[in-house]
Every structure is written in structure tokens, then in C-alpha cells.
Sequence to fold (411 residues):
Amino acid sequence: MECFHPRISTFSIVSMRGEILVNKIYSKDGPPRNDAASIFLDYVKKTKDIAPVLELENVKYIHIKCSSLFFVLTTISETSPFFYLELLNRIKGLCKDFCGVVCEEAICLNFSLIHELLDEVIDGGVPQLMSTQALKPYIQGEAVAIKHERPNSAVFGIGASLFGTEMSSASLNSVEKPIVGTKADMYSHGARNEVYVDLIERLSVLISANGTIMCNDIIGCLQIKSYLTGNPEMKLGLSSDLVIGKTSRVGYGYGVRLDAVQFHPSVVFDDFESQRILILHPSEGEMTVMKYQQSGELSSSLPFLLNHSIEEDYDKSVLTIELTLKCDLKPAVYASNVTVRLPVPKNTTNVSPSLKYNSGQSTEYKTEDKVIIWKTHKINGGTTLNAKFRVCLCLCLCLLFNVPWGLCFII
Fold:
């Protein structure tokens, strides 16, 4: 029986702006030199929704997206695409461990380190070591850390309740430092022994035009980034009122019910049922301890309030839509990358936006989807943003429309 070995032809890291940041050629069986990344970028520009796995001219293009970067590999092997997707995710994790953060600036500043890392991870197109701890002695380059502005406290959802206490945050620039520091730190007895715990939640809420919540869902994960040496035992205590199961009932007080939970395979549950304690031996680097999902009633109010007003001019077939977005968070917290999707009538011919100058906001009208995209880079807690849109309609058909809004953001 013929055996197919996983082999990579090329690996690239490209930005959404069309720049090729990293390009490694492992085999001549794939696309010509420097053509794989260019072919992928051309396809991204022409295609609206790109699938994780593509096949162009008998060559498979497999990619994942992280922030504004694409991690792309090509192969002609018949190995399952899930293997390569997992491989890309592990390479992304290694880049984050060794560079501190995965972004275009970090990749450019640590260009030589990334190439050194790829030489150890992939040999002749065949994947090799994928463990941060195993790779650490072989990486000789020193990472260049970058600084990013990050929020400094927990916000909504079940974050504080999950741990059964109020959470306080350290400087989050520390957690973005690379696992591998300077050589003096690496081999000295004074090397730092620290561990950082991040609770990341994705809140999806569908709100009708009159402000009614139609559905909501929270997907979260508990991540730790460990700088501990020697894999010591670590105990992570969760709230004693934590209840798991969609049909389980929560007692009086501030209990937390999770519909579904998935734990890392290395987690030990000896004390979980009685004391809600997770026991683990984290290796150096980042790992996801647990993932969870919750739906139904929210444990706190929505982080945003979106109001609107619509004025119709029947004579000119024009709609004037004004949106007011209020960030209902604490003043010390801000939301970033906020996106509002506004569907418009199908007979819309033109959209003219009106925004405050130099406010970090932008708009885009997608003609094919008949959707207005309103984006803002940052909005502080307790502040309000306004946007006005002049929607021109075809002929004299001018109808009031009540459609759900779409809103996504990062806190």
C-alpha cells in the first residue's frame, strides 16, 4: 500500500496589505520560486470569502489568519488538510512564544529569529520539533520585544465570576514578552519564574431594530502563558459555584452555569468535583487550559448601546440614517476594533457617510451585499460615537426597514 508522507513545498507569512514577510522554499515540486505567496495574494484580492484549503493547478494552498497576517503553506501531498491546519496553528504558537506577540511589526523585527525557528521546525519540508521547551536550547537568536497598548481590567461576561473573586490585572506588556529572553537571563539563576492567566471571551449578540435582544452566546477560553522552568505543579482554582451543563440549575447568589466545557488533555481532575481545582504541569509557552460556551441570559448588561433614527425624503428618494453608539463600560476600559454592520434597502444606489474628523473612524459601503460597514479603532468606556449616512434610493421607492444590526469588537 502506498504511504503518503506529509511534506511541505513552501511556507509563507504574508500581510493583508499584500507584503510577503517570510517566504521559505522547501521543495521544487510546488509552485515556482516566490510564486506561491504571490498566487495566494492575488487570489485573496479577487475572492471575497476565501476557504482555509484551496487547490490551484494541482497544488493545495492551506492557510490560517492571525490578526492581519496569513500563515500559508503549499503542498502536493495527499495528507489530510487538518494535519496542515494544526501544523500552521502550532507554528503560529511558536512564533508567539519566541517573539512575544504575532503581528506584522513583530515578524519584521524578528525576521532572522523566525527563519532560525523554521529551520528547526521544518527540515526539507518535513515537520520536526513543535515544542517550545524542546526548541529553546537550539534557538540562538534573541527576540526583539515590541510594546502594545492593551486594556487593563476585566469587562463583561463571566470572567470574574468564573474565578469566584474580583480579578486584578498586571501590566499586560509583560505577558507579551518572548519566552526566550537574553542569554544572560536564560542561563542565570535569576531568570524570572512567572505565569500569566488570560480569560478571553467572544460575545455574540443579535439585536433587533427596536433594541430587543434576539439571541446571545458567549464562547471563552482560559489561557496561560508560563515562564516557569521545570514544569512544576500548578493548581488553578475556579468558583465553587460553577455549574457545568445546559440543563443544570444555578442556586441562589452569583453562581455561573456553563453549557459546555472542554479541558486540555494534561489537566488532572482529582480535586475538581469537590473543590473546583484544576491541577496541571504547564510547560514553557502558551497553552489553552479550558474552553467553554454559555448561552441564554447574560450575567451583566451589554457593553454597547446602539440607537438609531431614520428620516425619509420621499421627493428625493433619500434616507438619512443616524447612529449613536455608546460604550457602556468602565472609564478605565476601552474596546478596540469595533465594527457595526448596517444593512440597507436593495434599491440603494449610493451612500454618503458623515463622520467626525480625525476620530479613528471609517466607513465602507459594500455594493454587492448592500451593507454599510462602520468601524472605529478605539472607543473608551462611557463615551459616545455618532455617524450619519445619506442613503440614495433608486426611483421613488422609499420604504422604512427594520433589520437586525451586526456588531463585533475586542475588549
